[in-house]
Each structure stands twice: as structure tokens, then as C-alpha cells.
Design a protein that fits this description.
The protein is mainly beta. Helix content is 0%, strand content 54%. The strands form two sheets. Strands 3-2-5-7-8 form a five-stranded mixed β-sheet, with no helix packed on it. A three-stranded antiparallel β-sheet has the order 4-1-6, with no helix packed on it.
């Protein structure tokens, strides 16, 4: 499992998170189940059900706020693989995958 903790999340708040958001997926793609979609100020933790999590940051760039700070830990059994990807609108995804723990 992967546990993601937001030390800070300050995005443009709107109903449905239509302007800025961080979406956590329980797997490697946007077709996997959504763990949560965040835009309100929070310091919460989220855990995947398996060894993969996709984090997608989306912004419309119209309002500047603090952004987000997130750290994560791999909580998996010895010898298993873990996969984490962070994707944003302005850059390619950062992938951490196939890490034998």
C-alpha cells in the first residue's frame, strides 16, 4: 500500500473543485477508482488499497495560492512492488515504480 499525507493543501476552493484540484487514484491510471479529489485546505492522509497510486494536480492558473506539500510512504510486504505517479498540467508525470521493498 501507499500512504500519502498532505502537510499543506491550499488550492482555489470551488464546489466540485472545478478550478484547482489534486485527485488521488487507487491504481496507475485515471480509469482506476478515485480515492479522493481535493481542493479545500486540508492536512489529511490517504492510503491506496494496493501497491499503486496516481496523484494528478490540475490548475487553471487564474488564482495563486500556496499549492500543496505531500509526502508518501510505501507500506507493502517485503518483496512486493510499489508504484507511485505524480502528474501535473505543466509537466510530465513523475513515476516511482518497480521498487522492490
Amino acid at each position: 500500500m501507499i500512504s500519502a499525507h498532505f502537510d499543506e493543501l491550499q488550492l482555489e476552493v470551488a464546489d466540485g473543485c472545478v478550478f484547482d484540484s489534486v485527485t488521488l487514484y487507487d491504481g496507475q491510471t485515471r480509469n482506476d477508482p478515485v480515492i479522493d479529489k481535493l481542493c479545500a485546505h486540508t492536512t489529511s492522509s490517504f492510503t491506496s488499497s494496493g501497491s499503486s497510486m496516481l496523484v494528478v494536480f490540475q490548475t487553471d492558473s487564474s488564482t495563486n495560492t500556496g499549492g500543496f506539500a505531500m509526502d508518501w510512504t510505501f507500506v507493502v510486504e517485503s518483496g512486493r512492488f510499489a508504484w507511485l505517479s505524480i502528474a501535473g498540467a505543466a509537466y510530465d508525470a513523475i513515476h516511482f515504480r518497480d521498487m522492490v521493498l
